[in-house]
Amino acid sequence: MKIKATVTNAQAFIKTQEEFGSFSKYIWGFVDGKPIDNKPKSLSEVAATTVISDALSKDLKKRGFKFTGSTVMYAHMQATGMVNDHITECFIRK
Length: 94
Hints:
By secondary structure, the chain is mostly helical. Helix content is 50%, strand content 4%.
């Protein structure tokens, strides 16, 4: 299923890219083009999903993407810099 999803996602990616001019414009539109800085004080304050990751997941699924649940999309948002969830004491935050 994941191999088939890779092909399906690639096709959906191309369609989304054509619609918005780039996939980057599409996905960053969910955060108004600016990273969200949550400034958590501890790891227990870091969410697994948010309203935004829920909306992104729902929209991607509507566009035909597979395996794009809210938790996966929030992890993507963290990994790509759309969200900064480094705790305030983290050396990377500085």
